[in-house]
Every structure is written in structure tokens, then in C-alpha cells.
Amino acid sequence: MSFPKSFMWGGATAANQCEGAYNKDGKGLSTADVMTSSKYGHPREVTQTIDETKHYPSHHGVNHYERYEEDIKLFAEMGFECYRMSIAWSRIFPNGDDAEPNEAGLKFYDNIFDLCLKYNIEPIVTLSHFETPLGLQKYGSWLSREVVDYFMNYCETVFQRYQGKVKYWITFNEINVMSTKPWMAGGIQEDTEQARMTAAYHQFLASAKAVQLAHDMSGAYQVGMMYNGHIAYPASPDPADVTRTTQFMHQMLFYADVQCRGYYPNYKIKEFERNNITLPIEEGDLDELRAGTVDFISFSYYLSHVVGEDTPLKFVGLNGVKTGYKNPTLDTSDWGWSIDPSGLRYILNLLYDRYQLPLMIVENGLGAVDKVEEDGSVHDAYRIEYLKKHLIELEKAIEIDGVPVLAYAMWGPFDIISASTGEMKKRYGFIYVDVDDDGNGTYNRYKKDSFYWYQKVIETNGASLKFE
């Protein structure tokens, strides 16, 4: 077993889940900074302003802002060839609509990129990863067309600043989360289908404009979209279950349809007509969408779903999606997510067959409760087993099915705050971070068993997988 020589191995994080320093060096508040943790069984709450009696996990993250040199050095020790990360928009433009960028924020990411390049790690940079500047609420956030212009100002600033340092850009993280968690996706408080589709339209337009701007500024730039990798199987061979599964997938895949093909699919247009949904289309917009299709598809993959005739098409619950069915053939994680390695091969084929664009896996991993031994070691054989099985299915997709995959970036290489719950105890990393759900701890880093396992996988370009 081996992977293409050009294949990039690495890891992935998000600024709001790891950096902390939410108000340092001129950074403004983002939508993530007013989301509480979900401790004690309560869902994450959006408070709009900071309530000193509540806990906001993004405020401390895992102190990556202060310890990025240590973290990236550990990535280099593992052998990382790529690092998928995000820029905090409100670290560059504190209110989102500022006339001038914050130099301290720009310099911070200069330092990150310079260090990555020192270690021959290719940055893959997400422009908007679940943290729209809170200052843009006065316009209605992504419900407003004005925000498209502010996003473009941000894009122009970072595209210009980081020429020669960044090649791969991703416009919006898991853009289809607009249909499941609109506050996270775009700071949208009005949870109606009309609001979600208006905000999504403006993000499509912004993404298309950003793609064109990047191509105009540098022939080296490659710009991709990012899909929250929901896939579903029919609950039975009953044709009604198969039809319902197709409808379920349409709710997710239409986001990729627009960004990869440059137009809204007929099934979505018909749905809008039935539900009286209108889009704020202005002259020239449809040309922009067609001209701004992406260069590659990136996606996350954690779990698969089962859908039947009785599945409600309202996306709620765990991970934003609750279908009412469980797959009896699959095990689940500590948080109830199905563990389906074969689904990774399935979604790779699904996306490539549908769009014929190169792919990147920019999130995949197992959230679990880790135990630290007295000597500081963490024996996470369950994480190794999870990743090993997924990587074997990835290799099959490349070698047997011929799917062009550029990179695999595991989520997240050091323990970070969980986006879905705001917890620290839901750990993904190869590197243990000593901090609890309340932000208490030394923040020191410790290598887990999986650190050395992944180091070997990268060193052998995947060949070590077959000997285990």
C-alpha cells in the first residue's frame, strides 16, 4: 500500500477553536466568541454580548496564539506536509467593515506561514471558518449584500499580503452548515428557510468573486470550496426510502452544485418555487457564479447517516443532523457518531463522479475521552484503529477507483475546543493538551501513542499501514 508521491499528509484546525487570545492585539469579537460551551448537558448558547457569568471556550482555545511555534514544530516532527488552518477575519478587520486592516493580526499569520514554510509545510487556508465578525451584525450579517463587499475587502487584503506564502485557499468552511446551524455558518439569527437561503446566496456570490479575485492576483492561487461531508444510505430497499435519501442528499449537495458548476440545480429551483423562497439576484450575479467556480473540493468526513421515508428533512440535533435512524451495522463514538470507514471511499467517489474536480480531505478524526497515565502518556489505540481503517479506504479510492486526492489533513492534530459542543473532553489530537472544559490547566502538550503512529504513516507515505 502506498500513496502518490505528490500526496500531502497533515492536520487541520480552526482559529476560533485553538487560538484563544480572543481580544488581544486588536482582535474584534466574532460570532464564535459569544457562543458558550454546552457543559452540563445544555446546548451551546448564543449571548450576543459577553456575559461574565458564562464560559466561552473560544476565549482561551488551547492558547495556540501564544504557543504556535511549539505546535508547528511538533507538526514538523510528525512530518506534516500540509496544515489546513483558518484566518480569524476579526483579527484582520476587528469589526468586519474597518477602513484599514489590523497590522498585528496580519503579522501573526505572517509568522505562522513563515514557520510552516521553514518546515516545508504547505498552508491550506480557510478564509471564513465559523467566525464572522460580530460587528457585521448591524447589517444583518450574511443576510446583507453589503457583507459580500466587506468579505471581498478582507480577501483582497490577505491575498495580497500572503502571496508567495499561501497557494491553497478555501472560501467558507462547511458551507452547507448554513442549513443546519446558521449562526455558526454565518451569524444568522433568523432560523427560517428564506433567511438561510438568502445568506447562502450571498456566500455563494462572495465565494465566486473571491475565486476570480484570487486568479486575477496570482496564477499560483488555487481556491476551493468546503463541504460538510454528510452522506446517507437508504434504510431499506424500499423505493420510498431511496427517494427520501436522494432528497436528503439534495439538501446538502446543492451547495457543492452551485460552487462547482456555477448555477443552481433544477431540483433546488423547483423547491424554491414550491416554498415561495426568493433569492436576492441582481444583474450580473448569475454570470459571477458561473465565472467563479472552484478549483478543488475539500470536505470533512466523520460519519454517515441512514434515511428512510419517515425522515424529517429539517436538520436538527447531533452534528446538526438527526434522521431518526441508526445504522445497526456500525459502531459509534463516545458522542454517538457512527464510525464508517467505507463511507469515506463512498463520498470520495460520489464527489468526484459528480464534479470531476480534485479533492482534499481536510477534516477526519475521532472525538474521544482520553486518559492520561501517570507518566504523561496517552494510549489511544482506538484513535489509531479509527484512522487506520479510514486511510485504507482512502487508499482504495485513489488506487482502485482512480479518485484524484491531493491531501489528507486529520482533525485536529492537537486537542482543540469541539465546535459542536464547546468541550475539551471531546479530544481528537495526536497531541494531548492539558486543559479542561472550564479552561483550567497548564496547556502543556504531550505526545499520544497516535503521534508516533502517524509519524510512521507519513514517513512511509502510507506503506506502514499494511504491516499493522
TrEMBL record:
It comes from the Bacteria. GO terms for molecular function: beta-glucosidase activity. This is Glycoside hydrolase family 1 protein. Belongs to the glycosyl hydrolase 1 family. GO terms for cellular component: cytosol. The keyword Transcription does not apply. GO terms for biological process: carbohydrate catabolic process. Keywords: Glycosidase, Hydrolase. InterPro entries: GH, GH_1_N_CS, Glyco_hydro_1. PROSITE patterns: GLYCOSYL_HYDROL_F1_2. Pfam families: Glyco_hydro_1. The keyword Hydrolase applies.
